[in-house]
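Hypothesis: this fold can be encoded by more than one sequence.
Test: take the C-alpha cells below, design a sequence, compare later.
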C-alpha cells in the first residue's frame, strides 16, 4: 500500500468536501427521537431548506437516501402507471431519471439532444403543443447535468411550457445546482425540485431532499403509484417520527443544521458569486490547456458551462481513465470520470461546495502535473491564467462589494 501524506483533494462533482464544522457537528451522542430540542432543530432545517430552494409555498421532504432515491421519491408521489412524461435529454442524468420513471410504468417521451449543448426550450414548447389532449403529466428537467457540465435555463423551460398553455408539472433535478448556482423555485414556477445532501449543500452523502409546490402536492392526492416510505401524506403530518417515516437521520440533521448556518453566514448571493469566480478560473485554465489539441471542453457554448463542474473531453489516444486514476492515486486529487457515452472519453473537475482559491489552484495544479506525468499534450500557462483570473475577480469584487458578510467582501 502506498503511503500518503498531507491532505488530498476531493474534486469530484459529488460527493464534495464536507467542512470540518459540519463533521464536528455530527460528533455527538444520538438523542431521544422525540427530544424537543432535536424536533426544533429539524423544523428549523426544513424552514431553512425552503430558503435555499427559494420557495415560500413549497413543502420540504427529507429522505434517508441519495439523489437516485430523491428522484424516485418525487415520481412515486405524483405518478400513476401509464402517465405520460416529457424528458428533455440533457446528458447522463436525464437518462437516469427517465429510467426511474419507466420503472414506475410511465410512458416517457424523450426530446433527444447531443450532450454538448443545453436543450432548446422551443423544442419543449413544440413537444407540448403537439400533445393536443394535454396528457403529458410532467416535464422532467435536470438543472445542472453533472455528466456534461451544462446548466439549463429552468426559467426558459417554464416559459416554454406556459407559452403553449400546457398544464404539465415542471419537475427539476437540482442535485448538483442547489447551493451552487441560483435556483428560484417559486419565481421560476417549479412544481417539484429534487436534491441531495452531498453536493452544494456540503453535507455527507445520505440525504435526499424534495421540495414540492402546491400543484405537486395536489397531484399527489390522486396519483396511484405504489409508495409508502416515499409518501408525502404521512410526512406532512407534524410529528418528527412521521416526517421521516421512522427514526430520523439524527446525525445527518446535525450536519444539515451546521451546513445551513454556513450557507446563510456566507449568503446565497455570495455563494453563487464564489462559484462563478472559481468556475471562471477553471475555465480560463482549461482554455489554455486545450490549445495543444489533446483536451477540449465538452460544453460548446461558453454561456452554458456549469459553475459547478467542468467536463473535459480527451482526444483519441488519450486514456481518460488512466488520467483520472493517476491524479487520484499518485497526486491525491480525485476527479470525476466520463459518464454514459462519455465513459473513457472525458474527465470532470468538480468545483462545487466548500471550496476556495488555493483549493481550486491545488486541483488544477494536480491535473496539470498529471498531464505532464503522462505525457499528455497541454499548452503551458493554464495555472497562470487561473491565478490571474482569481486575482482579477477578487480585485473587482473588493472594489464594488457592499460591506456584507461573505468571503468576497471581507477582502475589501
Ligand atoms: C449526483 C447527481 C445525481 C445522482 O445522485 P446520487 O446521490 O449519486 O444518487 C443525479 N442528478 C444529478 C444532476 C447529479 O449531479
Amino acid at each position: 500500500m502506498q503511503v500518503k501524506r498531507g491532505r488530498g483533494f476531493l474534486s469530484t462533482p459529488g460527493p464534495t468536501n464536507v467542512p470540518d464544522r459540519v463533521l464536528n457537528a455530527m460528533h455527538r451522542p444520538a438523542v431521544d427521537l422525540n427530544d424537543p430540542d432535536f424536533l426544533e432543530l429539524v423544523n428549523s432545517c426544513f424552514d431553512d431548506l425552503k430558503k435555499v430552494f427559494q420557495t415560500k409555498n413549497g413543502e420540504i421532504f427529507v429522505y434517508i437516501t441519495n439523489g437516485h432515491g430523491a428522484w424516485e421519491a418525487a415520481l412515486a408521489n405524483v405518478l400513476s402507471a401509464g402517465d405520460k412524461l416529457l424528458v428533455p435529454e440533457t446528458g447522463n442524468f436525464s437518462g437516469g431519471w427517465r429510467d426511474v420513471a419507466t420503472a414506475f410504468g410511465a410512458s416517457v417521451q424523450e426530446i433527444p439532444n447531443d450532450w454538448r449543448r443545453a436543450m432548446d426550450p422551443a423544442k419543449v414548447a413544440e413537444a407540448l403543443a403537439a400533445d393536443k389532449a394535454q396528457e403529458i403529466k410532467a416535464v422532467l428537467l435536470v438543472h445542472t447535468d453533472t455528466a456534461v457540465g451544462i446548466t439549463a435555463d429552468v426559467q426558459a423551460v417554464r416559459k416554454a411550457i406556459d407559452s403553449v398553455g400546457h398544464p404539465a408539472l415542471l419537475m427539476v433535478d437540482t442535485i448538483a445546482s442547489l447551493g451552487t448556482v441560483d435556483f428560484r423555485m417559486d419565481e421560476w414556477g417549479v412544481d417539484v425540485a429534487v436534491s441531495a445532501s452531498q453536493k452544494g449543500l456540503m453535507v455527507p452523502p445520505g440525504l435526499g431532499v424534495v421540495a414540492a409546490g402546491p400543484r405537486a402536492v395536489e397531484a399527489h392526492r390522486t396519483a396511484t403509484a405504489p409508495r409508502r416510505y416515499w409518501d408525502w401524506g404521512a410526512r406532512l403530518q407534524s410529528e418528527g417520527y412521521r416526517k421521516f417515516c421512522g427514526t430520523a437521520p439524527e446525525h445527518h440533521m446535525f450536519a444539515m443544521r451546521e451546513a445551513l448556518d454556513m450557507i446563510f453566514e456566507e449568503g446565497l448571493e455570495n455563494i453563487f458569486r464564489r462559484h462563478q469566480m472559481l468556475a471562471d478560473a477553471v475555465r480560463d485554465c482549461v482554455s489554455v490547456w486545450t490549445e495543444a489539441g489533446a483536451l477540449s471542453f465538452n460544453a460548446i457554448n461558453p454561456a452554458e458551462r456549469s459553475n459547478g463542474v467542468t467536463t473535459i473531453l480527451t482526444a483519441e489516444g488519450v486514456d481518460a481513465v488512466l488520467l483520472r486514476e493517476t491524479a487520484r492515486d499518485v497526486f491525491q486529487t480525485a476527479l470525476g470520470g466520463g459518464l454514459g457515452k462519455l465513459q473513457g472519453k472525458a474527465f470532470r473537475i468538480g468545483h462545487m461546495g466548500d471550496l476556495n482559491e488555493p483549493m481550486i489552484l491545488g486541483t488544477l495544479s494536480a491535473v496539470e502535473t498529471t498531464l505532464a506525468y503522462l505525457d499528455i499534450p497541454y499548452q503551458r500557462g493554464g495555472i497562470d491564467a487561473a491565478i490571474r483570473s482569481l486575482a482579477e475577480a477578487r480585485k473587482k469584487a473588493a472594489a464594488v462589494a457592499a460591506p456584507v458578510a461573505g468571503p468576497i467582501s471581507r477582502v475589501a
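Residues 14, 66-68, 93, 142, 144-146, 173, 175-176, 196 surround pyridoxal-5'-phosphate (CB under 6 Å). The chain has 15 helices and 14 strands.
Hypothesis status: open.
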